[in-house]
TrEMBL record:
SUPFAM superfamilies: Periplasmic binding protein-like II. NCBIfam families: TRAP_TAXI. It comes from the Bacteria. PANTHER family: SLL1037 PROTEIN (PTHR42941). The keyword Acetylation does not apply. Residues 1-25 form the signal peptide. InterPro entries: TRAP_TAXI. This is TAXI family TRAP transporter solute-binding subunit.
Length: 331
């Protein structure tokens, strides 16, 4: 028998008798677009890496330092990272094509909501509040108070939302300037010092209740937190796709009343181009090992599957949806 015929016959027999092995999911090797080094998002990156390793020791998630949520939306959309963290408000802006984007980003998909409890906190001194009879952010416009306010730097979503809240309450930047006040942009680490040193009258930022920056102010000054009226909360919640939030009474010294405000959250996103199997494997690992995320920081202790599966400004990835349905978490 010619050699070529023997070879072909052997190959044919091999295909007939060889067992058909089941397909197995490949290990994940993903890059997570986060933010600057340190801080909660870095810890979340470590937690997500622990999550996937718990289900498959060969899987890994590598944290990549970036400019934050807006930058991450572009990175994920363009395939420069597989997954990313983004504030819920930033995700809504990206999906709508608002500034800084020139057009809607249509291929972002939700993997899971990770937290929604970083409230916008407007902090002034009790003496300033009493002098101008200010209890709520709309009181500035009512009395045309010459307030000097500090918000986060341009491009930071907390500064954008703080200014939007004040504008909705009748105190936009131009009006504040006309009343003799000013809006000062500064980094988070600088804002507390500006209020402590008397260079501004009002601190506005989106941080967790009891954040070190506000504790720092509280240790130096008698502070007062200002509430946001219901109509302003409703307007801003719809515009930025964020939730209303109540800062419990006695969260700070001399704060006997609850404060009604709005809160930012963080969402884990991927591109629609991520394979369904990878998104499913990632989401299933997240469901199976949620304690790994809860344990990264005390602020994450309240994360549960109800929040994890909540809808955001963009739809769930098909793979994430399959994992949640399989776990009985959504229909």
């Amino acid at each position: 028998m010619p050699l070529s015929r023997i070879t072909l016959t052997g190959l044919s027999l091999a295909f007939i008798v060889a067992p058909v092995l089941p397909a197995t999911a490949q290990s994940l090797n993903l890059t997570l677009a986060g933010a600057s080094p340190g801080g909660l998002w870095t810890l979340l990156g470590a937690g997500l890496d622990a999550v996937v390793k718990a289900n498959d020791p060969n899987s890994t998630i590598t944290y990549q330092t970036t400019g934050g949520g807006f930058a991450n939306a572009a990175m994920i959309s363009e395939g420069r990272a597989e997954i990313g963290l983004i504030h819920d408000a930033e995700l809504a802006i990206a999906a709508q094509g608002g500034e800084p984007f020139s057009a809607p980003i249509e291929n972002l998909r939700t993997i899971g909501y990770l937290y929604d409890w970083a409230p916008m906190q407007f902090v002034t001194t009790r003496s300033f509040a009493e002098e101008h009879e200010v209890d709520s952010v709309d009181d500035f416009a009512a009395a045309q108070v010459p307030v000097r306010m500090t918000v986060n730097r341009a491009g930071n979503i907390t500064g954008q939302i703080a200014s939007a809240i004040m504008a909705a309450a009748g105190a936009d930047d131009e009006a504040i300037a006309q009343w003799g006040g000013a809006v000062v942009q500064a980094g988070s680490s600088e804002q507390a010092g500006l209020l402590q040193n008397g260079r501004v009258d009002l601190y506005a930022n989106g941080v967790f209740v009891g954040h070190s920056s506000i504790r720092e102010i509280e240790n130096a000054l008698d502070i007062k937190l200002l509430s946001i009226p219901a109509d302003v909360r409703a307007q801003i919640a719809e515009e930025f796709s964020i939730a209303e939030f109540t800062i419990p009474a006695d969260s700070y010294e001399n704060q006997p009343e609850a404060i009604e405000t709005l809160a930012l959250g963080a969402v884990l996103i991927a591109s629609a181009e991520m394979s369904e199997e990878d998104a499913y494997t990632l989401t299933k690992a997240l469901i199976d090992n949620l304690d790994s995320i809860r344990s990264v920081h005390p602020a994450m202790a309240d994360l549960d599957t109800t929040l994890l599966t909540r809808e955001t400004a963009v739809p769930h990835h098909d793979g994430a949806l399959r994992a949640y349905q399989e776990a009985g978490l959504i229909e």
